[in-house]
Amino acid sequence: MKNIQGIAASSGIAIAKAYHLASPDLSFEKKSADNPNEEIERLDKALEISKQELEKIKEHTKKELGDEHAEIFSAHLLVLSDPELINPMKDKISSDNVIAETALEEVANMFIDMFKNMENEYMRERAADIQDVTKRVLAHLLGASFPDPALIDEEVIVLANDLTPSDTAQLNRQFVKGFATDIGGRTSHSAIMARSLEIPAVVGTKDVTSEGKQNDMIIVDGNEGFVLINPSDEELTAYRQKQEEFAKQKEEWAKLKEEPTFSEDGEQVELAANIGTPDDVEGVLNNGGEGVGLYRTEFLYMGKNELPTEDEQYDAYKTVLEKMGDKPVVVRTLDVGGDKELNYLDLPKELNPFLGFRAIRFCLENENVFRPQLRALLRSSVHGNLKIMFPMIATLEEFRQAKAILLDEKENLKNEGKEVSEHIEVGIMVEIPSTAVTAKQFAKEVDFFSIGTNDLIQYTMAADRMNEQVSYLYQPYHPAILNLVNNVIEAAHSEGKWAGMCGEMAGDPIAIPILLGLGLDEFSMSATSILPARTQIRELSKKKLASNKDKMLTMSTTEEVVEFVKELTE
Ligand code: PEP
Ligand code: MG
């Protein structure tokens, strides 16, 4: 029995057995072979098991995600059957008298190095395929189990050091009841995805993977940020009760699903949702979302081996717009980089990826990637209420440049006889302090702002959003942040524009009264936060909060702000 404190990342309570999603230790001692024939047999066996596994994963992926996503596994299977790769391994065992592990690793590395340096993109991708399958075969040779999240077929809680966004995308909602990770914060993308998948999650526990063993009984309390390992019978009963209470609470919230959002004193705001895929729209509508305030298009580019085509993107955007009807949908152009990597783009590793070559910086330099996305968006605009938003804007020139490319593509499409809406608002994410400070200048040119506090806080406080060691500095209610947010809202209003927020702060019950008082127009959050937020806002007086705005903005510390807001809203 052990209780571990982490960061509450996605609400709800989950109870199930642990499933370790840790990469196995693949180190081994390079010994000489006692019996080379036996080593060749071991290699054959490991290759065979790996093939069987990959066939299963391929079938599963085909069923769940479609042919295209399954293609990568066909490529992996081809690698495992390629005599040009396998025969040299066997030759090496016989001629150099080495164990199967050594032969596998050395021959694979030789091919990986060769392919990695080739001009041809297709060949470079083969290097990644060989790398992936070699790990699987090596794990089998070493008797280690290789985790396959897509193949989970019983109810589990996934324990992992970290989950990449593409790991998270593979989790099957039917069986993965919750997850807990060692690292990460509330705004790491695995946490954000857990909320859109509505899976209870706790992140940043530091040691859940070393404390929790495979098949241990686990409780994930995503409301309080606790993980219980092998709980007592009393704890289990108490948590089952909490699970029921939470379900009842959700029923209460659901009564407000079709209602607009008004404060106690009759001021209306918009509650929108953040989504990552067209499938998430269902959750938005089920949770009473009045729009999509942020569609993170990165996920269209992930979990595959190449860029999505213009038509694929058009289909995704059209689906979202049509499902949302006349409700607004803010689509953000590609925000790759930071913790969102795309292997096939082969971007150099950077020392500070969050400060590096990402988002609009990458897109402006790679128009071959940017233009197809803009074209797909423009073409989709006739199917709903589309707004386009550029991420990571640091200077007005960047916005002007991005908008000019957008207008250029609009012109091209019209010349091609394609229809484009004439009412697309074009706005920016405000997530870099330079932009928040000079919001007044931006407000003259953009149609709207959406404040990205996940990044704005990390850049303002110089505290990495992924690093739990500096999470004490990641303070959403710090007066520095509130002043920047206020500056953005005032700048927007002075030019007759609207200001929203799509960072996680927008759905935070402590921040909501502050933001209402500062005059935020649109709050965009995880779909599951919408109904609790609507419930809360109905009990708040916007006038009272607004009349205390100056006091809030001149406070000295986060603690003072939190105390003050508590008093004001009691
Ligand atoms: C943000 O930075 O607040 C934001 C919404 O973008 P992301 O979390 O995708 O970086
Ligand atoms: Mg951001």
From TrEMBL:
Subcellular location: Cytoplasm
Tree of life domain: Bacteria
Positions with a binding annotation for Mg(2+): E431, D455
Keywords per UniProt: Cytoplasm, Kinase, Magnesium, Metal-binding, Phosphotransferase system, Pyruvate, Sugar transport, Transferase, Transport
Keyword Kinase attributed: yes
Classification via InterPro entries: PEP-util_enz_mobile_dom, PEP-utilizing_PTS_enzyme, PEP_util_AS, PEP_util_C, PEP_util_CS, Phosphohistidine_dom_sf, PTS_EI, PTS_EI-like
One Gene Ontology term, aspect cellular component: cytoplasm
MF (Gene Ontology): kinase activity; metal ion binding; phosphoenolpyruvate-protein phosphotransferase activity
Ranges for domain PEP-utilising enzyme C-terminal: 250-540
Name of a matching Pfam family: PEP-utilizers
Binding annotation for phosphoenolpyruvate: R296, R332, N454, D455, R465
Catalytic residues of the enzyme: H189 (tele-phosphohistidine intermediate), C502 (proton donor)
Catalytic activity: L-histidyl-[protein] + phosphoenolpyruvate = N(pros)-phospho-L-histidyl-[protein] + pyruvate
Documented EC number(s): 2.7.3.9
Enzyme class of the recorded protein, top EC level: transferase
Domain PEP-utilising enzyme mobile, chain residue ranges per copy: 153-225
Main location: cytoplasm
Required cofactor names: Mg(2+)
GO biological process: phosphoenolpyruvate-dependent sugar phosphotransferase system
Residue ranges of every copy of the Phosphotransferase system enzyme I N-terminal domain listed in the record: 5-126
Biological function: General (non sugar-specific) component of the phosphoenolpyruvate-dependent sugar phosphotransferase system (sugar PTS). This major carbohydrate active-transport system catalyzes the phosphorylation of incoming sugar substrates concomitantly with their translocation across the cell membrane. Enzyme I transfers the phosphoryl group from phosphoenolpyruvate (PEP) to the phosphoryl carrier protein (HPr).
Family of the protein in this entry: Belongs to the PEP-utilizing enzyme family.
Protein name in the entry: Phosphoenolpyruvate-protein phosphotransferase
Gene source species: Virgibacillus indicus
Lineage: Bacteria, Bacillati, Bacillota, Bacilli, Bacillales
Gene giving rise to this polypeptide: ptsP
